[in-house]
Amino acid sequence: MRLKNARAAFTAMIMPIVLLATAQPAPQPQQMMQTDTWQVSVNEMEQHRRERITSVAEELQEAGMTRSFGTDILKAVGFSAISTLVDVVATETVNLAKYRKRQKEEWMRMIQNECNYTDSISSIKGLKDFYKENSSYGALDPSNINFDGITIRGMRNDDEVVFITCHIDTTRLEHLFRHSKFHLVIDSIAFNPYICHLPNLAANGIRLMEKSENERDNSFSFSERNHLTIGMEMELYSSWINEAVMIQQNVKLGTFKFNVTIPDHVEIYHYSRAQIQRNIDMLAKDPTLRNPDGSPLNTQFVEMEGDCFVVPRSFMPLCQNERMWGTGEYNIKVKFRETCQFSQNETTNAKLKHWHKDYQQLRKMQKKSGEVNEYFRTIWNQNKDNIIKTTVKQGLNTSLQSAGLSSTGSAGMSAAAAAKMKAGAAGAGAAGAIPPAMPK
Q1: At 429, which helix (H) or strand (E)?
Q2: For residues 196 and 336, what is the distance between their CA atoms, to the nearest angstrom?
């Protein structure tokens, strides 16, 4: 009867640990597609090891060590859990510092994204054929050109942000007749930086909001951003058919582009090619001329880079005895860009000084708040298996050591368990009982 009680007590004590170590997760709903298959099997213990554990359990029960034995196991389990948690906390304390560093790096990437804006203009109003009339002289006859540059006007809330106009450079017509190419010059530019598209919130997946919807100031400021630059790129495409009935489809004929840096703290930037030419002419007469504020007169043209072939005319015989070419079909693709740099001066740039607050506001605007909770959930998901496995492993090790199955200790038993066994055997011998044999 006592033997049965001892077995039952030991079984009740060790089974929760074994079940925790071998527990399988609850079944999950079947997925549409499985990429991995896992199988967990329970190994059956050999008979001689089972008998050895049973023998030690009986002796422990007779010696009154059941409570102490369980206490040892629980202490080992608790100590293991605490030490594992301490290791995780120590590691994650370092990781939290790295996490804050990663946050700032992410914030800087978001800031850099805000400093770039590009818009592709696909709708071109007033687009007509490149030539006004047909030609009987050939596909590249430049007579009656109808195209003379483009004009760009950008509006925001009925306010004009940018105005750019350019035309064919008539001072370089030699290229038109010798190489069938033309160039463009910029006539005028007007740009208002304070209602421009920077900072570009959409680059970080943030929709445009009213000022009342967010706490962050999203207007452009020269105290926060400098080296503001605007630029344009224009590509001209055409399709045509020649006399051999060979079709050329959507061929790029040329590219034009320019970039201009907007002076810091300017209210509205103005550029006029005609005014630059007048300044050059006046300085030729009087080199001492200055602006009213004493600054020198501007004599730098904003150059349009690139060139373009004239649009080939399609072959179109109107009758059997007359060769004729059409008026040249073409298409234009325009990209407008705004770029700037984020100021690294903490004295004037409040966002740089209080970067974490700005980061939180950006994250809030992205509807991605709660990143800290997400971070600690990630910590638990990454370390929970290690904590549980280490706790169960230490508990089992203590059980096996107490049962005399560990490779450490005295004769396969822990020193404490051996001493208690010896004391119990001595007490039993004094009472006239035969001491139990030590397990081998």
Answers
A1: helix 415-430
A2: 12
Token digits of residue 371: 């990143």
Q: How many CA atoms lie within 13 A of 230 on its CB side?
A: 22
Tell me which residue has tokens 């199955």.
405
Please answer whether residues 377 and 235 qualify as being in contact, where contact means their C-beta atoms are separated by less than 8 angstroms.
Answer: no
User: HSE of 313 in the Cβ direction (CA atoms, 13 Å)?
Assistant: 25
Q: What is the per-residue pLDDT across 319-330, written as a single tens digit (0 to 9) for each?
A: 667 889 999 999
**pLDDT at position 389 over 70:** no
More confident residue, 127 or 409: 127
Tell me if the pTM is above 0.70. Answer: no
Q: How far is 25 from 38, CA to CA, in rounded Å?
A: 11
How far, in Å, CA of 419 to CA of 408, rounded?
A: 15
What's the rounded Cα separation, in Å, for the pair 338 and 114? 10
pLDDT reported for residue 336: 95
Q: Name the pairing type of β-strands 184-191 and 269-272.
A: antiparallel
The side-by-side arrangement of strands in the sheet containing 116-121 is 116-121, 330-342, 225-241, 247-261, 308-309, 181-182
Q: How far is CA 284 from its chain centroid? A: 55
Number of helical H runs and strand E runs in the chain: 9, 10
Residue 413: both structure tokens together: 């038993």
Reduced to 3 states (helix: H, G, I; strand: E, B; else coil), residue 235 is: strand
Q: Which of 36-45, 73-82, 90-99 ranks highest by mean pLDDT?
A: 90-99
* The pLDDT value given to residue 434: 42
Distance between CA atoms of 262 and 337, rounded to whole angstroms? 13
- Bigger pLDDT: 31 vs 261: 261
Confidence (pLDDT) at 121 = 84
